[in-house]
Write a structure and sequence with these properties.
178 residues; alpha+beta; 5-stranded antiparallel sheet; 3 helices; 9 strands; 33% strand
């Protein structure tokens, strides 16, 4: 593998936009919890062979937390309009968001703030969202063994119905404790 090709993962999906590319893949947190990670990169003007390509060597990686994964799934399933999560990474300067667009695409943004500020925006078509959603739902099912697809969908509808609008898109550490 070279830096112009995304790393292959057993359960993943690649999405390519005009200027940015995204790999969504099944991952495991440091605590051993099934989750999903986003690797985003931008187009490189010229590669080692003189051709344009994707700069996967300079990718921006963000991993979903256990608490964030249901909100991500809710947007991918069309149950919610958007979610945004920040304060990822050792410097707490990375994040991501998903926003359902009027045309049915989902805009996924992977960003980093501070001195090394970067933003990758990838429009995800409904067809690609199907496969990205499959990766996310598979990881939710791995987190909840014994919960079938119908029960998971019911839980998702309930999650969206009871999560206060001012708490959607906030991680556990950002939510006020009662």
């Amino acid at each position: 593998m070279n830096n112009s090709e995304p790393r292959e993962h057993p359960l993943s999906h690649h999405v390519y936009g005009n200027r940015s590319a995204l790999t969504v893949y099944a991952d495991t947190s440091e605590q051993g919890i099934p989750t999903v990670s986003f690797d985003a990169t931008s187009e490189r003007q010229t590669g080692p062979n003189g051709k344009a390509g994707w700069d996967w060597g300079a990718k921006l990686k963000v991993q979903c937390t256990k608490a964030e994964l249901p909100a991500v799934a809710a947007v991918l399933l069309g149950l919610d309009h958007s979610c945004k999560f920040e304060f990822h990474g050792p410097r707490r300067n990375k994040g991501f968001s998903l926003t359902l667009q009027d045309d049915g695409t989902i805009a996924i943004r992977v960003f980093q703030s501070g001195e090394a500020r970067r933003m990758h925006v990838i429009p995800v078509s409904p067809a690609d969202a199907f496969f990205v959603g499959g990766v996310v739902l598979t990881q939710l099912r791995r987190m909840l063994p014994g919960v079938d697809g119908a029960a998971l969908h019911a839980l998702m509808r309930r999650f969206v119905g009871i999560t206060p609008p001012n708490q959607k898109g906030k991680s556990e550490t950002q939510r006020a404790t009662p």
